[in-house]
Amino acid sequence: MEKVKTYLAESWDEIKNKVTWSKYSELQGSAILVLVASTIFALVIGAIDWVFKTGLQWFYREF
Question: What does the pLDDT look like over 25-44, one tens digit per residue?
């Protein structure tokens, strides 16, 4: 049990004193970047899906 207490005390000390926390503005900028990149990625994948769907529908109608 003493090892668990030591571990928890050292972990808390590390979180409070040794970890460098990002500033709110940096986190906000990163979140916006992820949101924009995810939206662009989703639009590209959606466009590719639409092109394949339309192409296959045309192909099956023709044959």
Answer: 999 999 999 999 999 999 99
